[in-house]
Amino acid sequence: MSLPGMFGRDLEDTDASPADPLALLGMWLPDPADPVKPLMTLSTMGLDGYPDARTVLLSAFDGRLLRFHTDARSRKASELAAVPRATMTLVWPDAARQVVVTGDVAPEAPAEAAETYPTRSRALQLLAWLNTDELAARPAAERQAAWARFDAEHAETPLVPPSTWVGFTLAPRRVVFWRGHAEGPSNRIMYTSGEDGWSIERKAG
Ligand SMILES: Cc1cc2nc3c(=O)[nH]c(=O)nc-3n(C[C@H](O)[C@H](O)[C@H](O)COP(=O)(O)O)c2cc1C
What angle do CA 51, 56, 59 make, to 5 degrees? Predict the structure, then answer.
C-alpha cells in the first residue's frame, strides 16, 4: 500500500501485527536511497532534569540501528554523553501515521560518521563548519560575509567534515506505531524489547 508524501509503505492488512517491528519500521521509512531524509524530533534527558527536544534529520536506518548526525559541541551531545538514551518521533500527517522509537544511543566511529558528510547538501556541509555560538552572536551581515568567504575559499575541493562532525546510532527498545483514520479511532501497536524478543500490545491511539 503506497501512501503520500515522504511516507514509505504500509501493510496491506493494518490489523496484522508483524513479529518484527524493525521490518515494519523499514516499510514506513522512505527508501534509504532517497536523498531527502525524514525529519524527526529527537528527545533527550536534559542535564537539568527537564526533557529536551529538537528537530534533526534521520540520516539512515539499516534495519537495526537509526543514525543521526550533529555537532560534538551541541547540547544534545553533552546530554547523550550523560544519559545515552533518546526518543525519536517521526510524523507523516498526510498519511495519518506517527512512529515513536525509544532506545539506547552510542557514538558512531569517526570514519563511519564521516561517510554521511558528503551526502549532505553543500549548505549543510558549510553549516557544520560555521555553526558556532561565536558566529551566531555576530550581526547577520557579518555571519553572511563569513559564510561567503569560507565558501569561496573552499570552492575548489570538496569539503571534508570538521572534527566536530559526529554521528550517533540508536538501538530501539520500544517502537510505537500510530495510525489515524478519518472515520474511526486511531490505534497504536506498541513493541517492547525483552529477553524473549519483542512483546506486542494494541493500544488506544
Ligand atoms: C528542519 C531542521 C533540520 C535540522 N537537522 C539537524 C540535524 O540533522 N542535525 C543537527 O545537529 N541539528 C539539526 N537541526 C538543528 C536542531 O534542531 C538544533 O537547533 C541544533 O542541533 C541544536 O540543538 P541542541 O542545542 O539541542 O543540541 C535542524 C533543525 C531544523 C529546523
Answer: 130
Residue 58 φ/ψ, nearest 5 degrees: -85, 105
Q: Whose CA is nearest to atom 3 of ligand 1?
A: 56
Q: Give which of 51, 112, 113 is closest to 86, Cα–Cα.
A: 51
Q: Please write the tens of the pLDDT for every residue from 38-91.
A: 999 999 999 999 999 999 999 999 999 999 999 999 999 999 999 999 999 999
- Ligand 1 pocket by Cβ (under 6 Å): 39, 52, 54-57, 69-71, 74-76
**DSSP per residue, 104-168:** EEEEPPHHHHHHHGGGS-HHHHHHHHH--HHHHTS-HHHHHHHHHHHHHHTSSS-----TTEEEE
Give, in words, the CATH class of 21-119+162-204. Answer: mainly beta
Tell me the per-residue pLDDT of 189-202, one tens digit each, with 9 for 90 and over.
Answer: 999 999 999 999 99
